[in-house]
User: Fold (Mediterranean fruit fly) hypothetical protein from Ceratitis capitata.
Amino acid sequence: MSTVFITKKLLNSNLATDRKSYIYLHSEWIEQNLKLHIKDSSSGLCYAGEMEGSEFKEASEDLEIPLQKYIDDLKCVLTTELGLPGFEVELDTQNKLLVVNKRENFCAQHVEMKLRTAAKDYEMLNVAIELIEAEKVNNKNNECDNSVEEKIQFMQKQLHEKEEWKQLTYKKFLLILNEKKLEINKLKSDLENSEREKRRAIKALCENRKDAEMDMQDSDHESTSNTTASSHENSVYDAPTQRLTPPPT
Assistant:
């Protein structure tokens, strides 16, 4: 998959004229291969050049830099307007070379790319228009994606809140249910105790009534016995008087 950039780069200043010159750089990165289209702002001429992965590897080995870091640094220099600190870009129109130098304690040539004259300078404008249109589409897609993502997050939040509400409601329901169970058990226990006391009271009442009936029976029997005895005594005392006749002599 290729990555395309169009960048306006400030070239190394010309001390003789003290003029700042620019190049418009269209770079296409395909894995570890690079294609360049350059337009010089001073002369209006266009150039093109390529570098392959083997050239990157050879240059990184010469500089004793890891290959990926070498490519990343070069990509940052060529695709961003500010580039990297310490790096300078030069366009040698006489020898048709694009040179990137790294100046720290000393100047080290980071890359030297051979160029050729390119006649179709209008292609860069077409590429720029295509990139702008693609960027607009990407922005719209990103906005759409962001909108969809926001809606998804909103729905997830709503579902999460609903689930929390369900859990809270369920806990409240269990709490109320347990309280009702305790109340029912208490009422059931009170009812059983009341029934037990009622049965005891009825039993005691029955026993008291039975005792009373027995006492009444004993009392009636005793009264009857007393009446019979009294009648017998009265019959003895009330017997008719007989005259006693002495026996014959």
